[in-house]
Amino acid sequence: MDWKSLMFSFEGRINRKPYWMYFLAVIVTNIVVAGLAVMLGDTLGMVILVPYIVFLVWTAIAVQVKRWHDRDKSGWWVLINLIPFIGPIWVFVECGCLRGTEGSNSYGPDPLAGAA
Q1: In sequence order, which residues have a C-beta less than 8 Å from that of residue 41 and are 6 or more positions away?
Q2: 106 lies in a domain?
Q3: For a tag site, which of 10, 17, 18, 40 has the least CB within 10 Å?
Q4: Would you give the DSSP letter of residue 80?
Q5: ∠70-116-107 over CA atoms, to 5°?
Q6: Number of domains comprising the chain
Q7: Is 116 helix (H, G, I), strand (E, B) or coil?
Q8: Is residue 74 one of the residues assigned to a domain?
Q9: Three-state SS string across 20-50, please?
Q10: pLDDT tens-digit map of 1-27
Q11: In a domain, 6, yes or no
Q12: At residue 113, does pLDDT exceed 90?
């Protein structure tokens, strides 16, 4: 799967590795963008931060939807993030720790097929 499909499409499945690599890249990018925004000041910093946050929210939802698909669940499960305390813990366990469905499921072929 190429990076455009990973970050902008809501179809397909991904395993845990691209999921965690995406969030590692987000952490590094957040540090760089936040530092740049602080250096540029309030007004110009906001001009950079607002489009970045919109981009970040879109891509994070797309990546997490694909991870839910790998667990053979609807992408609507991303809404569990809105439940305080329990939601993020549930997402961490389901999307970040548990293996996806072995073999094909209703959302596509196994992303680990042939990787063993």
Answers
A1: none
A2: no
A3: 17
A4: G
A5: 20
A6: 1
A7: coil
A8: yes
A9: HHHHHHHHHHHHHHHHHHHHHCHHHHHHHHH
A10: 788 888 999 999 999 999 999 999 999
A11: no
A12: no
Structure tokens belonging to residue 106: 């209703």
Q: What angle do CA 6, 84, 93 make, to 5 degrees?
A: 50
Q: Is residue 1 part of a domain?
A: no
- pLDDT given at position 74: 96
Domain of 28, in residue numbers:
13-97
| Closest listed residue to residue 65, CA positions, set 55, 79, 75, 77 | 75
Average pLDDT taken over every residue of the chain: 93
Cβ neighbours of residue 38 closer than 8 Å, sequence gap 6 or more: 45
Q: Could you tell me if 47 and 36 are in contact, meaning their C-beta atoms sit under 8 angstroms apart?
A: no
pTM, full prediction: 0.89
Residue of 16, 8, 90, 20 lying closest to 54 (CA atoms): 8
Q: Among 30, 19, 4, 21, which residue's Cα sits nearest to residue 91?
A: 19
Helices 16-40, 42-70: axis angle to 10 degrees equals 170
